[in-house]
Amino acid sequence: MPELFDDLPEQPAPAATPGGAPRLRRPVRDQLVLTPGSLDAMLPADHQARMVDAFVSRLDLGPLRDAIKSRDGTPGHPAIDPALLVSLWLYATIDGIGSARELARRCDTDLPYQWICGGVGVNHHTLSDARLEYTAWLDQTLTTSLAALLEAGAITLTTVAQDGLRVRASAGGGWFRRRPTLERFLAEAEARVAALKAELGEDTGASRRRAEAARARAAAERLARVRAAVAALPEAEKRAVRNKKQAEQARVSTTDSDAVVMKMPDGGFRPAFNTQLAAETGHGLIVGVAVTATGADQPSLAPMLDQVKERTGRTPENWLADGGFFNRDTTAAFDAAGVTVYCPPHAPKGDRAPGEAVEGDTEAVAVLRERMASEAGRAIYRQRARWIEWVNAGFRWRDWRQVPVRGLAKVRTLAMWQAMTHNMTRIMRTPALLAAFPARLGRA
Q1: I need a labelling partner for 46 at 20 to 30 A (CA). Which of 233, 281, 316, 323 fits?
Q2: In the chain, where are the structural domains located?
Q3: Quick one: three-class SS letters along the chain?
Q4: Rounded to two decimals, what is the model's pTM?
Q5: What pLDDT does 444 receive?
């Protein structure tokens, strides 16, 4: 039987060439690649972005959607769904991203953010505006979510722990000025604004008018910042006197008049804000958030109790705080309100037995000393470090080290995003809390 292609000539075997050029597979990057699939198929089933989306789907987004002006039957481009923007910022907070520009870039390059967007384009202006406009909604959502868990019995609010966490301000230390310099800056800024307004009124070309208008806006913004700094001077002077300094030494930032130079955890002094957090000790959920412009923790104790009572409708039985919160008057006020305080009082001078009252102690402080010296009191107080320090560590891990915004109100909004992210993670990863959390917190 003839063989196939038997008429072909015999081919010699290729000779081995030791030491010749290696055979390599090299990339061909201009070749076409067809990759069938979807964003949903590419994202792992247990990815955190899915957890964020599932949590947001349970929230009441009605107030945010009610504010949208684009409606069926009316002209205008469709608005981005607030659920998408909320999901982006919650997931960005988990990633420690605080810049709207960086978040917009991630939406173009990173799969989890692309999955959340689902093909919807977003820019940093929209992201930045949404983050700061949702303040009231964040506050209300924190309240309603806690109310739902309290009603279901998932949390009891028996014991609350409070602590302060200082975060660096956006303003730099080199922009703080004393009264004479601020008054000179104010006069110069007012003169600059007046001069630019006069130039803007002249009959010039369109391009020049636009440039002059931009300079006028910049000058007006600087004037507003300097005026805010001058307005903040009286409070800064009072603060200097309280710190045993002369009022003339008081300084205020011309870029963020709310920022105050504070002693930071590393021992240095920088412009900062004091973030006050309160968490229940059953699951570590945040039940109170505040931001102050004072380095002392003592003034924040009573307002935080009032906030927690207003937010939850309940009065905690026990309140845990470190020694920096101790105040005789506040201790008496808490006892009168039926709240047992666990807070180390100031150590007495001399050799005294633990829990022994000292001269000048009020009745409430004497009872507090005895309580903190008892074994039962120490056992309850140990919950403070277990829960609130862990909450603080979560804030730090999510890059709560320096805020990218200026002003007390905006910093508080970012703190609310942090608190919402923390509670979301606890609820979605704790089976008991997730089972008690409603499938729909309010309107869709």
Answers
A1: 281
A2: 39-67+79-131, 135-172+260-415, 174-253
A3: CCCCCCCCCCCCCCCCCCCCCCCCCCCCCCCCCCCCCCHHHHCCCCCHHHHHHHHHCCCCCHHHHHCCCCCCCCCCCCCCCHHHHHHHHHHHHHCCCCCHHHHHHHHHHCHHHHHHHCCCCCCHHHHHHHHHHCHHHHHHHHHHHHHHHHHHCCCCCCEEEEEEEEEECCCCHHHEECHHHHHHHHHHHHHHHHHHHHHHCCCCCHHHHHHHHHHHHHHHHHHHHHHHHHHCHHHHHHHHHHCCCCHHHCCEECCCCCCEEEECCCCCEEEEEEEEEEEECCCCCEEEEEEECCCCCHHHHHHHHHHHHHHHCCCCCEEECCHHHCCHHHHHHHHHCCCEEECCCCCCCCCCCCCCCCCCCCHHHHHHHHHHHCHHHHHHHHHHHHHHHHHHHHHHHCCCCECCCCCHHHHHHHHHHHHHHHHHHHHHHCHHHHHHCCCCCCCC
A4: 0.86
A5: 42
